[in-house]
Design goal:
Elements: H1 2-34, H2 38-70, H3 82-94, H4 98-111, H5 122-129, H6 133-142, E1 155-156, E2 165-166, H7 179-190, E3 194-198, E4 204-211, H8 213-221
């Protein structure tokens, strides 16, 4: 366990180095346009970065607190391992999309709640880091349909991004899927959150997809349950 936490701290240190390098490069770039020194350019970049990060930190804090009240949950009552806590806070405070940051807030609350029976894992963080807002929206729609555990229910995607529905053998799909939907479904497939059907030639048939255990597990980790 200590080794895993040490790795988490090491990764955080690497991230700091990357930000420092980025600040130097951006500062040099800015300095060329303001006829100022490298220090002035770096200062402008770092001030803006700090402001953005502070702004997102404040929103995360307020959103998390409001969700705790809304769902009738107590304050965090379980310590989060560093290997989970550090990457969650790093990603959540840098996320500029409000919908995705809300997913991070949900994941943070579940990770720190003894009432949440499921374990929040590093794979959940990795998946969320790789989702766009559209990806997350589609994933929530797919898993909002009541499904039996381990079932092979086919989900039709032709009405995305508005809705999905359970497919049957009588369905005929004449509408072509928009490119952005295909790209989103491709990403969700890459992450193991869904599985498309296959064509006779072995290609992916995105008009219908199957849920996966990993996808189901991830969506649960990012959803809050009302306290009984």
């Amino acid at each position: 366990m200590f080794e895993e936490e040490a790795k988490a701290v090491q990764e955080a240190s690497k991230a700091v180095v990357k930000v420092t390098d980025a600040a130097q490069q951006s500062g040099s770039f800015i300095a060329k346009f303001i006829s100022g020194s490298l220090e002035q350019g770096v200062g402008i970049f770092e001030d803006k970065l700090k402001y953005i990060r502070f702004e997102r930190q404040m929103r995360l804090m307020k959103k998390t607190q409001s969700l705790l009240v809304e769902y009738g949950l107590h304050a965090p009552d379980k310590a989060i391992p560093l290997k989970i806590a550090i990457p969650i806070f790093q990603a959540a405070t840098m996320e500029e999309d409000d919908f995705l940051q809300d997913q991070w807030a949900n994941l943070l609350i579940n990770a720190s709640s003894s009432q949440f029976e499921q374990e929040v894992k590093r794979v959940h963080i990795s998946i969320l880091e790789n989702l766009s807002s559209l990806d997350a929206h589609i994933l929530n729609l797919i898993y909002s349909i009541p499904l039996d555990e381990g079932s092979a229910t086919r989900i039709a995607t032709t009405s995305l991004p508005e809705r999905v529905f359970i497919a049957n053998d009588n369905n005929r799909y004449e509408k072509k899927l928009p490119k952005e939907i295909i790209l989103s479904l491709s990403n969700l497939t890459r992450l193991g959150c869904i599985e498309p059907l296959s064509t006779y030639g072995g290609g992916a048939y995105f008009y219908e997809v199957l849920p996966t255990e990993l996808g189901r597990d991830f969506v649960r980790a990012c959803q809050l349950q009302q306290k009984n």
